[in-house]
Design goal:
Strand content: 5-15%
Number of helices: 13
Strand order of the largest sheet: 8-7-6-5-9
Shape: globular
Helix content: 40-55%
Radius of gyration: 21 Å
Length: 356
């Protein structure tokens, strides 16, 4: 680790220690790969020195895509499938590679998971989110790169069968009738039938078929139990349920992250215990530096993560419940203040509006 004047920073260097303004607002978290825009932000904020990791710079990648751009790209793949056109395998592989690269660069890329999504874009954003979550679980399971690519492919395409479900059922704004829910459940079989016709690893199609199976036999379409459910579907099952709970749906509002985790944990015997443990301990639902709104009405920034209690980090308060800037350091450890919880993540423009 070395301390450098901001003027000597270069793109590709990695921040070693959190960069904060004079009034204690966190600009960048440890592990951030410095870009030209970051240097400008630091200069504008009056930052003089930054501690960076004493390692080789991360090479710049031309044509790097944002998660939103990846989602739009993936949407076109789904459109091809809907129109029964053969999708280009190279396009889907590029999408997975882009997502894997994002995860390898920064395992705390889940900040976008709590954004509100309209029902029309749900299937696409959900698929990308599930892919990223599955890749992170795969990383902690120490999967090799080729395995990760195939897992990512399976996760990205797990819901492709939904394209064959009538839209009036898929986007119904009230609770589904029994017959309608039976129709929705067929998306697992539809997905398998679609994917088995492509030159993809067999387990990709079987993941689409099995991702709603549960270890206790309560899942569908076959009611498989225990070891009869393969590893990739077990991984995708956890990621799928978590992200689905975090999204607004036509028939209900999104759950808060802590509520989503509690719902999953309170489903004993349904999910693989080892995968669930990895997910709960390692997926940074609220990465360091995330600006959040609390149920107390206060606004703060996440400064520490309680391992094993990812939904209850330590938050440094910046604005009180009257949206007035605080002039003293106050940190709330949500693992100890059980009556307070995070209600939402604030986007950059929302933070700027508060500051303004």
């Amino acid at each position: 680790m070395k301390k450098l004047p901001v003027g000597q920073l270069e793109s590709g260097m990695i921040i070693a220690k959190a960069v904060c303004t004079k009034d204690n607002f966190m600009l960048f978290t440890p592990g951030t790969v410095i870009e030209a825009r970051h240097i400008k932000q630091m200069l504008d904020a009056g930052i003089e020195f930054v501690e960076v990791k004493d390692v080789e710079k991360v090479p710049a990648v031309s044509g790097e895509l944002t998660v939103k751009e990846i989602t739009r790209k993936f949407r076109r793949v789904f459109k091809d499938i809907t129109l029964t056109n053969p999708f280009e395998k190279e396009k889907i592989n590029q999408t997975v590679n882009e997502l894997l690269r994002q995860v390898l660069r920064d395992r705390c890329v889940m900040v976008h998971l709590t954004e509100v999504r309209d029902s029309d874009s749900y299937i696409f954003t959900h698929s990308v989110n599930v892919c990223m979550l599955s890749l992170i679980i795969g990383l902690y399971l120490k999967m090799k790169k080729e395995q990760l690519k195939h897992l990512g492919l399976a996760a990205l395409l797990h819901d492709v069968g939904r394209t064959r479900i009538p839209k009036n059922i898929l986007y119904k704004k009230s609770a589904l009738a029994v017959g309608e829910f039976d129709e929705v459940k067929k998306h697992t079989v539809h997905g398998y039938e679609i994917l088995k016709n492509y030159n993809l690893p067999d387990l990709v199609a079987r993941t689409a078929l099995q991702h709603h199976e549960r270890l206790d036999g309560t899942g569908y379409p076959k009611g498989l139990r225990g070891e009869n459910i393969e590893l990739w579907p077990r991984i995708v099952a956890v990621a799928d349920v978590f992200d689905a709970l975090m999204a607004d749906r036509p028939f209900r509002k999104a759950f808060y992250p802590h509520e989503a985790v509690e719902i999953i944990v309170q489903s004993p015997g349904q999910f693989d215990a080892d995968i669930l443990k990895i997910f709960l301990q390692n997926v940074a639902i609220y990465p360091l530096g995330t600006v959040v709104s609390l149920s107390s009405g206060e606004v703060g920034v996440v400064v520490d993560i309680n391992r094993g209690q990812q939904t209850r980090p330590v938050v440094r308060i910046m604005f009180d419940r009257d949206v007035q800037k605080v002039h003293f350091i106050k940190e709330v450890d949500l693992s100890k203040s059980r009556d307070i919880f995070i209600t939402r993540i604030l986007k950059e423009e929302q933070v700027e509006n508060i500051i303004g």
